[in-house]
Amino acid sequence: MRFLIWLGAALAAGAQEIPAVSRAIEEAIAKKQIPGAVAIVGRSVPGQPDQVLHRHAYGLRSYEVPGEKMTLDTIFDAASLTKVVATTSSVMLLGIDPDRTVTSYLPEYPYTTITVRHLLTHYSGLRPDVDLEPEWSGEREGIRRALVDKPLTPPGEKFVYSDINFLLLGEIVRRVSGEPLNDYARRMVFQPLGMKDTQFVPPASLKGRIAPTERLKGEATSIRGVVHDPTARFMGGVAGHAGLFTTADDLALFARWMLTRKTDFTRPQSPAGKPVRGFGWDIDTSYSAPRGELFPIGGFGHTGFTGTSLWMDPVSRTYVILLTNAVHPQRTPPIAALRRAVATEAAKAVTGGNTLTGLDVLIGEKFARLAGKRVGLITNHTGLARDGQRNIDAMIAAGVQLTALFSPEHGIAGKEDHENVGNSKDEKSGLTVWSLYSGKQRRPSDESLKNVDVLVFDIQDIGARFYTFLSTMVNAMEEASRRKLPFVVLDRPNPITGTRVEGPMLDADRQSFIAIRPMPIRHGMTLAELARMINEEVKADLTVVPMQNWQRDYWLDQTGLTWVNPSPNMKSLNGALLYPGVAMLEFSKGYSVGRGTDAPFEQVSAEWINGPELAGYLNQRFIPGIRAYPIKSGVRLVITEREAVNSTLLGVELAAALQKLYPGKIDIEACARLIGNRATMEAIKKGDDPRRVVGSWDMADFMAKRQRALLY
């Protein structure tokens, strides 16, 4: 297989180190949290060689053998990684039906309401493990105990991580394939992928390369080459939940295979309103530390009790492998913090994180293009450089003749949440701040511009049509054009990427300060690009200062720039992504989109909504990248795969659901300025299928104009 050749070449050439990953692991070793580790971070893009960003061994393999260092080819007891690498993969390849009962595969199984899905997602109601005392032995005895173990709760009710689930799945693999799990997985998974060191029950000849695990009570040395998990050990070393031994390089091959497959196994499959699991794979539960702080929800991975973990992010196509023997020579506190730190630093390295805004570019130029001019700056609290410095302070420090400040909705500090924001003074600079959101006065006035030679605009937008910072920019451009004043836009990222364009188009007769020009709700442009497009009509003396190191598919958390709440109720990147859809209906009386809560636009509620009913209906619609969870009188919307989210489809699905379940309660007409499209409003009111509504949107003219204006 070609990717094996590519990966082998990358490893032979030596991989780049991510210093922050090394620091996190070395700190854990210094604190005696682990004796040593092997870590690999890589990217797998179809049609390209693997990018191995990090591949290093650290510390000691064993405390008991003086000077025995950890090496890249160390073989680890994978523990519960067995569940996904061996068992889940076998279930997937065999085509075992997740919605058939366990009894249909194991006729002697007495609990006829438990399905394969319940086993794969850990919602079977079974206990975490079979009884281990008094000690017993034999593979058949282990399976017998799993078959008779009585569930503690009804299936589908509670998430309980259970080895018994995978003992049963391993037996199903044996019955369906006609081979023991270890033989089938070796023949169909490990050998085809070139995983030459991955196996159950490793031979004695490999003992010297195997990392020891725990020293059991009464023993002089630690377990080495024998599975650590007691159930799997009692069963002779082969079980569906544990027993696999592997290396980091082998897991890199496996990770690439998974990242290049299209499978439902890595998508959410657990019941609505509960911790999110795929089939076998963890997605968003208390076990998700290996995702770190920056990889988005929508990735998948798993951990092992001995100190192993694997996480894959399909958005950036990154895999993070961390193998340690944290239980050697005795158990230490869980290493969740280390797993989280390694993944976070890996995400930073993968996404680059070095975008320079237009402001940063001007700072690098020492503001040369503003020299000798009296500058009026339209900005707010989001006008920050990469180092956190305000644009106001940076300009003054560089000698720019800053004569006036102008603020949009919410004021210069971004804290005022009312319709009439008055003029104020910037305390640090002493400059007057002219409000461009003062009642009906939403344009620069003659008085405010009397000492201005050039207007500069520097505000962070969020990528939606009905966000008034765009309207402030357009009004100011028109005034600059009328007065023959140069207008400069310092560009900033579209935080929800510049790739997605989603309707409906604004009807030409519905333009207002909320929606100032005909365009779709999610326009997929930066403000500088929008300025270029709109200037075809406005004819201002426009200059834009583009960003550097920004790509259209970047989310804000991939730029290295700090998230600053653009407005009081825009508190997260997730909220920004959901906003174009969720906010479509927020002018309906008695209906809340979460303003004033900890998660605005990530939830909707009304006294007439039945939370479980609405969550169930939305989840049955299989809205891409979204799961709904019931809350009091509403639902919480959780993003499970942000690249899949169509924000405006979500908005139409939500409108259709509310119309169907609670007729007459949602006022579509009241939301006309937000939806902005009469045909769409009528289709929603008639009960048309949301996918048909979305498919009817014609954005061809806009797309042609947009294409001419794009900078990146």
Name the beta content range.
5-15%
Unreliable parts: 1-15
Mean pLDDT: 94
Helix content: 25-40%
Briefly note the structural class of the backbone: alpha/beta
Largest sheet: 7 strands, mixed
Termini Cα gap: 35 Å
The coarse silhouette is globular
Radius of gyration: 29 Å
Strand order of the largest sheet: 13-14-12-11-15-16-17
Count of discrete alpha- or pi-helical segments spanning 4 or more residues: 22
Record field, number of beta strands: 20
Characterize the structure shown.
With 712 residues, this protein is an alpha/beta fold. A hairpin with a 4-residue loop joins β9 and β10. A 7-stranded mixed β-sheet has the order 13-14-12-11-15-16-17, sandwiched between helices. The protein has a 5-stranded antiparallel β-sheet with strand order 2-1-10-9-8, with helices on both faces. The model is unreliable at 1-15 (pLDDT under 50).
